[in-house]
């Protein structure tokens, strides 16, 4: 470059390096642009970027008489614009010394002593905050390399991250990554020396960038594809021609696989048919079957996108669905059963320490050999056992314990209805992603209902944070709740302004300062504080948690059927009753009639409060779960009667062995003693790790 005399070709730092072969002249774009004694007198195509060759040569001659105050070499074409400041320097030297170059207006340059700075009235940030572009943690103090958003007071950036984004996004797409403001944001970034080129975004300029949108979908998605040539086989004007869903066009079927006689027949995919069916506009069509084929009722109604699903016999599928009582409604059990079709027969064993469920699960799920679509097998281990013995464990018990750990973890805040918390350490360790992944795996593999989400958190997942309005109950911080209550109950404009002065630092910190002109402004102010505290403050944890919840397609299913999933995410399961438990457990043949009579009497006594145990205790004793999972138990819970003194719960098989006694009093005493003490000992073992 004739100005800085460097060979470096780094467009991000120095701008494009351009050579005029006719005049044997090479310049960096930024070196040319920021030179103090040259103006763009030509058209864009003339000279170099509109700077005439004769003007460039004059500027090089002028700069040859000036010495750079940094490297002490001649050719310093850029000078600080501050009056009485005599510093001159090369563009790369200025960057190295943290000078600021403004790529707007008169293209001013400022030396390190006179450069513009960002001023914040007070620094109440106690912890590091993530750069909202690269998500690496930074100290929230404005410096040359750390910049703060002018529109979102809690948004901080690396200068290098901003510059790369500005180059890629261009003037039309460069905006605040938190609130999407462009005018205020661009003005401040230009003041602080970020170059925003007047061009379209780089992703808009890629050749054939959106070519895939022009391709037709050609894949058979029905759960049981009958084409021997594969799901992508498509032969027009034959029974193996692929017909796309008439509603969405993003799912397909071979004509023969869905018993369609011709291409003109209408066909809807599973998701679209569910929507039409629930809306009441769905007209049941006559169903045709291919000759000499044994087609189950689920073949036409339950299609799945995965080509490698474990198959059941049509009779078994029909029996499962009828037992669940779905009758093809989009209820939660059917939806989770459909998600479960992804699970492969290949098994992955997880070694779980019951005293440290969370870390054991974390290690297992993070293992590079773990695949969430494999069948999960549980082996319980004890870290104090030097012989390394393993005990087979119940998968549903493990998932139930894991969900209890998740609910009570510092990743969530609130009492009953919980929202995501802001935990910087958990963010560093990517635990929010792991929590979403755990929840998705638990649901698909038959785990319990979460039941602890707030409606606000659930709505953010389904409809997006921008379409969700939090409520005061979502605020678990007492001090913040008091601020909102005091603002909402302000009686006069004077009272409201007094509160603004009292909480000035906090409101400025969260970007909620506003001019108060009328008393009604208090509602908007309270709303802004709510939105910040419940939604914007935890944006990074939310995005990470959401990505984890995409595992096995769970988030997409939730967003498609929000009403069905809302009940299991935001509400605890219904209380167990005598009838529910009686219907849940199947009775083995040749069981003792008297013992079964005692069992029914015992359930009624427990429900009436005449026992020291609860219905949930009985279910935990037999299955390891305190509630019935949305998809039901596998295998189905059962009862058998054995000649022994006390009951035995086999959680791996969900089997409860009842003692055969001579009197009901003895039966109840033995049941109470065994269940109560077994659960007490298990609780002590599980809490041992937490206590130490």
UniProtKB/TrEMBL annotation:
The active site is at 652 (glycyl thioester intermediate). Pathway: Protein modification; protein ubiquitination. InterPro entries: EPHD, HECT_dom, Hect_E3_ubiquitin_ligase, PHD-type_Zinc_Finger, PHD_PHF7/G2E3-like, PHF7/G2E3_ePHD, Znf_FYVE_PHD, Znf_PHD. CDD domains: ePHD_PHF7_G2E3_like (cd15669), PHD_PHF7_G2E3_like (cd15496). Signal peptide: none annotated. GO terms for cellular component: nucleus. GO terms for molecular function: ubiquitin-protein transferase activity; zinc ion binding. This is PHD-type domain-containing protein. Its main location: nucleus. It comes from Sousa chinensis (Indo-pacific humpbacked dolphin). Residues 1-115 form the PHD-type domain. The keyword Endoplasmic reticulum does not apply. It is found in: Nucleus. Keywords: Metal-binding, Nucleus, Transferase, Ubl conjugation pathway, Zinc, Zinc-finger. PROSITE patterns: EPHD, HECT. The lineage of its organism: Eukaryota, Metazoa, Chordata, Craniata, Vertebrata. Residues 515-690 form the HECT domain. The keyword Nucleus applies.
